[in-house]
Design brief:
Length: 107
Amino acid sequence: MTGYQWLIVVLCVILNFNDGIDVLIVSYSSTDIIREWDLTKAEMGYVFSAGLLGMMVGALAIAPFGDTWGRKKIFVLSLILITSGMLFVSICSSYKQLILLRFITGS
């Protein structure tokens, strides 16, 4: 493999790690989120579910376009969705926004 190919593999590993960390961080910080936003455990369950639902929708609705639009374009689109979702979660101000942004981050 060339150096460029190794770079791509390393970037993919880092991005995959980032996606896994996103799910893990929400789980780890759930008690603080519940306390800060005064949520019930059931409401926090919807926060978890929104991220997983976004992953399912992304896999079933967005990923198939990789064959027609090109994998690189879909990869960049997914990266934009994940990154923007993660950034905007940090400044969201309502429970509904949190659910929506978790969904977007998952997709």
